[in-house]
Amino acid sequence: MEKQEQISIKNDMLSIDETADVLGISSATVRNWIKLEKLSATKFEEKYFLNKESVLNLKENLADSDLLKKRRNKSTANGRFIPKSYISKASPNYDIISSVIKALEENSQITDKDFLAILTYYGKAYLDTLSLDEAGKKRLLEPLAHDEDDSFSHILSILKEYPLTYIEGEDTLGMFYISLRSLKTKKASGAYYTPFFVVDKCIENLRDVTSGTVCDPSCGTGNFLLRLPKDIPLHNLYGYDIDSIAVVIARINLAVKYRIKENNELDVLFKNIKADDFLTPAAPDAITQKFNHIIGNPPWGYSYSKDEIQKLGEVYKCARVSGNPESFSIFTERALSLLSREGTMSFVLPETLLGAGVHENIRQIISGKANIASLYYMGEIFDNVQCPCILLTLKQSDSENGFKASGTKTLVSFYKKSLKSKTKGKDSSSEGLYPERLVLIKSFETSRKKDDTSSFHMLCDDNEKKILDKIDGCEHFTLKGKSEFALGIVTGNNKTLLSPVKKSGYEEIIKGSDIERYKIGEIHNFIKYDPQKFQQIAPEGMYRAKEKLLYKFISNTPVFAYDDKQRLSLNSANILIPNVPGYSALYILAILNSPVISFYYSHTCKNMKVLRSEIEKLPIAKCDPETEREISLLVKKIINCNEASLYQKELSNKIAALYGLTSNELDIMTK
């Protein structure tokens, strides 16, 4: 193929993994859709590529279709109009809002007038706690103005039974607005509303800030600005959002927080908190000032019109793509352009920004303009949404080479969400009121010296990086081009086709949960081999191979087992058949199951799915024939005995020696 054609494929096409990332489905599903001709793909050098524009258009077309909805876990069965974790479940307002929404759902059809009237009722209740004149309160509430009719008296009788309690820092009105809007439209919102404990993590570095400007470019009802320390003056806070009603609530929230009394304070509030688009620098009243700190959770996956895409493309590099550009990338690009010297930006973003090929454009922009001050892996923080998230903090760089500035360190932390609540009302402290939190798992500082925009993942500290370099530096080969891979069977209906007992004509079928290191555990499922009934299946020869390795598809490290009984497997247990001259399948099994490879994989790959592409990158140590035989024999002993711990320790030491690792380094890997 000509060089120009290769460049075109790189720029205009997506790999199967990249397509899966864009559509929010698995790579296996993409392959299956190609097989079923639901997707059109081009094969180049034994790999499939899909047209980027076609995939992005498909994403838009499927946004409201059953095909993707069935594949996304966004259940909203109970309390479906309540954004869980937006405020603490220990807050008295949580149950109040839930009760109001339930009562309204049962008793009323919410009209636009009712919607505004309810917001006005609770907004005024909060404003009445201020020493602000009636004209000032009216000015804040005026955008919610409406003509009440007799039907509202019934709703008013409900509201009077449920007064809200003012709690400093809590966006109670915002939660009410989100819930009420969802009730009015009779569907849960697709927006990802930031849990309060994630907001706190985002602003923790601003706890001691008393000067400098802070901007939330997609402020909504003001939940980020509301939780900032009160030592930051009101005139230093800025917020923008295209939702005009949300902006009204943000102003009310800040008016109450700062106990506004004077009209000049109101003037500041209206000047700084605006119903405006952060992304329109060409507008007459465009945002031109620089900010010391920009924080927030920018929109993800916003669907732009063709006209909007054209206008955005005139200003932003991230918008110059085929199909729909990614909104969080454009917000990040805009935020970096408005940071003051030494300014910081902290955004809640999807973890895919760090490694997906479709997001390399924003990684290149970040690389050129900023240092990565901190990277927090937070996991799945949004309720009922399977999307791991990060908190990325960037610092405006004086260097033209961005994070290549010498001596730059990045703080990397890993968190998990804890939702263990204390008994309500046990105490009134902030700890008692806000029990949900992010729990720190581990943290370290690391250097980032390479200008590598293919990935921003940082999974190891400097000492661990030295061990990785040592592993990479040993004489090794990879399995790419030297192995066959296959997916397990996708039945399409496990409930019907699988049996817990062995019937006539049925045989064992292995699930991922049956796979232990080195061997298959007890099998509890049986199936009749009838390929015509299966949704997806590999060539039968892959299952019936004389010997094969099976591995767990869902796992944070590789877990492989040996099978020489020609057994079937489900798609949670995939197949590897190594064909490396001079090295047995048992030797390959030993290396893949070793602490060395577990350490290497977990510090170079961030994925709960064990993908073929990652397995093919793993460095398999070379050795002499005698060592290969010794290791293969040890694996046989481990497979054939019940007490294998002594053999496993001997095997681990032998493999560590192949990579030139010391006992201390092995201890670090297995700690």
From TrEMBL:
TM regions (residue ranges): 582-602
Residue ranges constituting the DNA methylase adenine-specific domain according to the UniProt record: 171-438
Gene Ontology annotations of biological process type: DNA restriction-modification system; methylation
Reaction(s) catalysed (UniProt annotation): a 2'-deoxyadenosine in DNA + S-adenosyl-L-methionine = an N(6)-methyl-2'-deoxyadenosine in DNA + S-adenosyl-L-homocysteine + H(+)
Keywords: Membrane, Methyltransferase, Restriction system, Transferase, Transmembrane, Transmembrane helix
Domain TaqI-like C-terminal specificity: 508-620
Catalytic activity, EC: 2.1.1.72
Xref: CDD domains: AdoMet_MTases
Pfam families, A to Z: HTH_17, N6_Mtase, TaqI_C
Domain Helix-turn-helix per the UniProt entry, residue ranges: 13-60
GO molecular function: DNA binding; N-methyltransferase activity; site-specific DNA-methyltransferase (adenine-specific) activity
Protein name: site-specific DNA-methyltransferase (adenine-specific)
Organism: Butyrivibrio hungatei
Native organism taxonomy: Bacteria, Bacillati, Bacillota, Clostridia, Lachnospirales
